[in-house]
Specification:
The chain is α/β, with parallel strands linked by helices. The protein has three domains: about 60 residues, OB fold (Dihydrolipoamide Acetyltransferase, E2P) (Beta Barrel), CATH 2.40.50.140; about 160 residues, 3-Layer(aba) Sandwich (Rossmann fold), CATH 3.40.50.300; about 80 residues, Probable gtpase engc, domain 3 (Ribonucleotide Reductase Protein R1, domain 1). It is about 35% helix and about 20% strand. The chain has a five-stranded mixed β-barrel. It has a two-stranded antiparallel sheet with strand order 6-7. The protein is flat, with a radius of gyration of 21 Å.
């Protein structure tokens, strides 16, 4: 039997089979010990159901078309796959006190997946004025670039909710990410037209909800596709994110192509087009600082990972096989 993992919680993965039925499953012992990989939300899996067994057994995980990967918060040299086989990533951020540094990092991770990316600015009703909301939207849009739609949404605005729904066409899957309290679960409930996700109380002081979602679940949206609601992600450590950085920082990447040296680090090299852009005011120093910091983080993680693999005696062929599996 074949199916898709539609829920991960503190129990066993819930798999929706091709006939629409749902089955709690456990991983085959050989899969866990041999491949050291677990199925994640969105994975297509092959399942068996032995006689007199109360759970299905995940025997194999099909190759992933996309994967949302971060550095495992608990391990300095290990990647963690949070979701697989999706078409888009929707980044939810509150319109009040927008954290640009976090948004930059979220954009890098989202673009690294190769899926489409969009930003939803939630809780627009908490903005002091329409002008403030528009200013924040423009700031996010300038940061994200012209290919990333930015939607401003509030609970009582049906038009804005429809704009978010349009980001998830029928037959597609979107991953919804964002820190705790930004209103992801409320957004999913609005899209689904039902209270499918629990919501914590909202603090009057800052309008933030308490974190209540602890599982990853795929929710069907009427007249649209499906949304994977992810728990608030605190750790956003980068893994192999070179492509994601280049896409998220296209302004820096395009300038870098004009540098005199191909391996220019944009620090003090002669003929650096990036530094020249900073001096002329074309590129903000803060933007370059963020770029340098993220590039350095990826390089440090890669170095630690390679050292750990060398200590374990892994070969280059092993690394290539793991990358094909989306880890």
């Amino acid at each position: 039997m074949r199916g898709t993992v539609i829920k991960l919680d503190r129990g066993f993965p819930l798999v929706q089979l091709e006939d629409g039925s749902e089955l709690r499953c456990e991983h085959a012992t050989a899969l866990v010990k041999g491949e050291k990989v677990r199925a994640v939300i969105g994975d297509v899996v092959d399942v068996s159901l032995p006689e007199e067994h109360d759970k299905g057994i995940i025997e194999a995980i099909e190759p992933r078309t996309t994967a949302f990967v971060r550095k495992d918060p608990a391990e300095r040299t290990t990647a963690q796959v949070l979701a697989a086989n999706f078409d888009s990533v929707i980044i939810a951020e509150p319109i009040v006190n927008l954290n640009i540094k976090r948004l930059e990092r979220e954009l890098v991770l989202a673009h690294e997946t190769g899926a489409r990316v969009a930003i939803v600015l939630t809780k627009a009703d908490l903005a002091s004025s329409p002008d403030e909301a528009e200013a924040v939207r423009k700031s996010a849009a300038d940061l994200a670039g012209r290919d990333v739609p930015v939607v401003v949404m509030s609970v009582g605005d049906e038009e804005s909710i429809a704009c978010v729904r349009a980001l998830v066409p029928k037959g597609e899957v979107a991953v919804l990410i964002g820190k705790s309290g930004v209103g992801k679960s409320s957004l999913v409930n609005l899209l689904a037209g039902a209270d499918v996700q629990s919501i914590g109380d909202v603090r009057a002081s800052d309008g933030k909800g308490r974190h209540t979602t602890v599982d990853r679940v795929m929710v069907e949206i009427p007249d649209a596709g499906r949304v994977v609601d992810m728990p608030g992600i605190r750790g956003l450590g980068l893994w192999d994110s070179d492509t994601g950085i280049d896409v998220a920082f296209t302004d820096v990447a395009e300038l870098a192509e004009q540098c005199r040296f191909r391996d220019c680090k944009h620090t003090d090299e002669p003929g650096c087009a990036v530094l020249a852009a900073v001096e002329s005011g074309e590129l903000a120093q803060a933007r370059l600082d963020s770029y340098r910091s993220l590039v350095a983080e990826v390089e440090t993680t890669r170095k630690r990972r390679d050292e750990a693999r060398h200590m374990r005696g892994e070969k280059a062929s092993d690394r290539k096989r793991q990358k094909r599996k989306g880890r």
